[in-house]
Amino acid sequence: MPVSQTCAATESETEGCQPTMPMKSHTSKPRSGKRSMGVKTVMKALKKGGASRGRKPNQSSKGFVWCARGVQRLPKFGTATVKSKQSLFVTPVRMELTKVAKLNLKVVAPSSSCSRRVSKNGRKRKSPDFCGDRSFQSWSSIRVFSATTRTSDKPSQRGIWDFANQVRYSCDYIDACKKFNQKPGRFLNPLAGEFFSGLPSGWTSANAGAVNKEKFFKQFPDMQPNANQGSKIGVIAMFAGCGGLELGLSRYLYPTAYVEKSDYCRKILQLRMDEGLLHRAEIHPDVCTFDASKSSADGAGGGFPCQGVSTASIQKGLKDRRTQLVTHIFRVFDTLPSQHQRFLYFENVKAILGKKQSMRSLFNYIVQETSGRGLTLHWARISLSNVGLAAHRDRVFFFGAKPNDPIVKALRVEPLASLLEKSSVWNELNKVPQHLWLSEEQPCDHNERMGVLGNLVVPACARLGACVALGMAISNAPAP
Ligand SMILES: C[S@@+](CC[C@H](N)C(=O)[O-])C[C@H]1O[C@@H](n2cnc3c(N)ncnc32)[C@H](O)[C@@H]1O
């Protein structure tokens, strides 16, 4: 029985949308407040003719020089090429994506008569639970960032923002616990994590048959065995995790090999391949030793570790040994037979576009290395709120492609408008799964699953990022 209902956020979620050609400029006002600083700076730079602070404006209004020293943040969408060793020429793409539907939740009593509220071993569940109402389509004031392995007694810097803590510290949840004289649960159920990550239920489980195939193929039609594979690019999927990024990019890419260090993730990848849910390919354990010289792939990429980039760390960038693993994407690309060296892709957190020196160096490194191989880098920063969830988990998707490369031109890039329309419903379930979200204990495999979800690239964000950035790659290419 519902005891209380979280209040729906009332602010307008529509920032304006330009759902047709991503390359067109427009002059919508930047949002006010701290978060709009980057946009303002870029707009100022554009008005001036585009140089970063401390430099003379020296470029056309279509782009600006972005230097290794300076304070300017990078735009959300853009293209970069090398200007000199220390500077890049950045072409920002002025567009704003609609923020779409939210999902309301309510808290239900622990003694609800609902049969699903009794666990498998017959024990009554102790804490009040969240429950989605079929009639609701929007998410409440609880903001979703990422799902992390476990919650602590005190919220940590990251913990305050992570999903489990936000649920746990929800006033509605705390009030309901008090009302029913119950101890609040602390650990998030992976099924809830999967739902809010836009993954099919059971995807991170290491059990066979955990995923409903019919629902899966409905959500990811490009994974169907009869889907048009001909227009896709074969890639080495590095840092594959449980395959979230590759699921999101499944319209465009198919892995000819996966590279992933975690035993648990490799088990998931293998199982989902055996079930026919992932493209079948060999799995290798370490990007540092992977050799692609016999591969038929036309590129390489992946979501490299974000610990040295995220603002939850001190952002050492390329000085962080985990961030340094990005170098292996280029190394592996170079080991591909020369005629196959055609495509690169990367993913990381939004801080990579930030103004901190270490971030600028990392970004510079990526552009220099990409351009050095004859590819132009295009990127799009996508928030969960652009794909159906009222949340601020932003990720940046980079694609490096040769201008006019037929394999890129053959990609069936979705019309942005229709993709945004599809995004108005979060996850294929269309409603919040009713199960215990928070519990006092965390079974061993739940811990593993939450760890995988903490690293996950939300497929819907990747799909939108690819649509925007590959759209730029194709429309930006000079005529042959
Ligand atoms: C940000 S996560 C990638 C998430 C993944 N793209 C997804 O969507 O689930 C980074 C991944 O890199 C993996 N990793 C870290 N070091 C590695 C290495 N040396 N070789 C292979 N994988 C590695 C981690 O285990 C982790 O799963």
TrEMBL record:
InterPro entries: C5_MeTfrase, SAM-dependent_MTases_sf
Top-rank taxon: Eukaryota
Keyword tRNA processing assigned: no
Classification via Gene3D superfamilies: Vaccinia Virus protein VP39 (3.40.50.150)
Pfam families: DNA_methylase
Leader sequence segment: none
Annotated segments matching region Disordered: 1-38
Alphabetical keyword list: Methyltransferase, S-adenosyl-L-methionine, Transferase
Active site: 306
Protein name: DNA (cytosine-5-)-methyltransferase
Organism field: Durusdinium trenchii
